[in-house]
Amino acid sequence: MKETSYIVSKAPKSAIRELFDLASGRSDVISLGIGQPDFTTPEPVLQGNIEALKKKITMYAPTRGVPELLKLIEDKVQRKNNLNINWKDNIIVTNGASQAVTLAFAALFNPGDELIISSPNFVSYFYCALFFGVKVIEVKRNKDFSPNIEGIRNAITPKTKAMLINSPNNPTGHALTPTELKEIIDILIENDLYLITDEVYENYIYDGFKHVSPASLNGMFERTVTVNAMSKLYSATGFRIGYVVSSKTIIDLMEKYHQYTVAGTNHAAQYGFIEALKMDISFFDKIWQSFDKRRNLVYSRLKEIGFDLVKPHGAFYIMPSTEKFNLTGSQFSQRIMKEQAVAIIPGNIFGSFSDNMIRISYATEIEKLKEAMHRIEKFVLKL
Ligand SMILES: Cc1ncc(COP(=O)(O)O)c(C=O)c1O
Question: Who's near 359: CB < 8 A, 6+ residues apart?
């Protein structure tokens, strides 16, 4: 047989999935690996989907998405993200933020283009780049996980096409400050670069930090692709509904790629998102408080146990160093799974500079988090 795709075969099987495989069938495992909130999807969202199916909405959806949904996204994006957009030109509904990122790559890049990202960063960006022939230039984050502005400036070459940011960030929990964002934007404008901004964690932000969409800032809309989804805010990762907001030129390109690769997005699920966007966002207040509490608990316990770590201001992840314990992130993750039945993601899947780190998700109920911290402490004490 002839060789199959060497490009796709370069991508390893997801380490996160492998960890889940290890944990499956073991009832004693506490998972701190999951990138999914633990509350149930709000009832109106479920009903929206169910009612659509009862009305036999089972045929292909309009390629860009159901108009009623596009109008509600327009309204949300105008109010929450401060972008002056038009639903007919500037939005496309996607299969989660994952496909939104894919569409951004499809619309912006040609093979050989370079993309700058702060590292560590979300794993899918690296493989999307591989699949589209894009060279990722990783710029190591500062010790506190803030972007290394000088490093970003120095990474630019004539081949640089874009930068990708994700704030609040998975895996570091870093949320960009207004100054950091301004510094990044200055570089983008000076060098005529595009920006992909993944904002799926915009509501998971703490300590008085405020999420700002870069596309709302002067001179940025036309060069920015804003990625978002219903997945994290409505705890609806299985709905597979996300969206992109960008200029008409970019959305038109995305529509073509979308048409010929996925032919649209789950039709009935879009009605679930319609009901989600009609909901009063205050449903999230209590959930946010609980996540804030979990964050404080996990941070203070890990610090007490002796980890070197940075307090995250966003998302629901924390990324301690394992260096002090003379273990790589992978060794730590494998051993704690075997010895204490705690599932933790090794840092090395998030780029080249996080071999000696682990990523802990605190999207798990508080009692389980307490028990997990206890097990981590027992493990570390024995080292
Ligand atoms: C930063 C980031 N972007 C995108 C995604 C994918 O989101 P979705 O489930 O909507 O495809 C995730 C999921 O964990 C994420 O953490």
Answer: 171, 317, 318, 319, 344, 345, 346, 347, 350
